[in-house]
Amino acid sequence: MKKIISPSVLDVKKEDLILYVNKLIEYGVKNVHYDVMDNIFVPNVALQYKEIEDIIKQCPKHIMNIHLMVKDVFGYYKMYRDIGDILTFHFEAFDSLDDLSILLAKAKKDNVKIGLAIKPETKIEVVFPYLKHISLLLIMSVNPGFGGQKFIQSSYDKIFAAKKYINDNELNIILQVDGGINNENIHYCFDAGINLAVVGSYLVKNFSKETIKELTK
Ligand code: DX5
Ligand code: ZN
After folding, report:
1. Is the pLDDT of residue 2 over 90?
2. Which of 71, 84, 96, 155 has its CB 3.0 to 4.6 Å from that of 66, i.e. a possible disulfide?
């Protein structure tokens, strides 16, 4: 299976953002992960709408994964539905399962691809009924909110379980992991069934074409 990374720009200095994304694309990266936080669902803020707009204007076209760590899912859906290739919301952010179904129906009508993310403490099984309606499942391997945290080992069990469900049900869905990924655990994640691995601080700290190669070899 192809090993693909989606670099996260969360830990890139604001003034270097455009240059970093341009370099990623120059180095062959096709898919970039953009974190959006509301300081409510998680105690932090990340990229603002205007910064993502600037990236669209000043960088070559690429696949934009927007990871929305926000409580107001409908408000942010409205804001981001026209930019970004996949909008990933947190399962835990929805007030009810009805709200989740409403959002999925809206997105289907608008032809917007949706991803669902789950926090480390959330059981993987809760999202299984929704997998046939979404494009991406994001297993968080750290508590969302900050870059540079340590990968939580029990995430492997979740990846295995999700992969099994996806295979058993012949679903066409991207399986993504995010948090604490480095040049070692990334290979275990790919072996466990991840299609798209988010790499944040590890790549920022070791930024080169060679690192990208090493992560996907
Ligand atoms: C954290 C974000 C991640 C973050 C990952 O909540 O969702 O995308 O940038 O950074 P690392 O790879 O440093 O854990
Ligand atoms: Zn993220």
Report:
1. no
2. 84
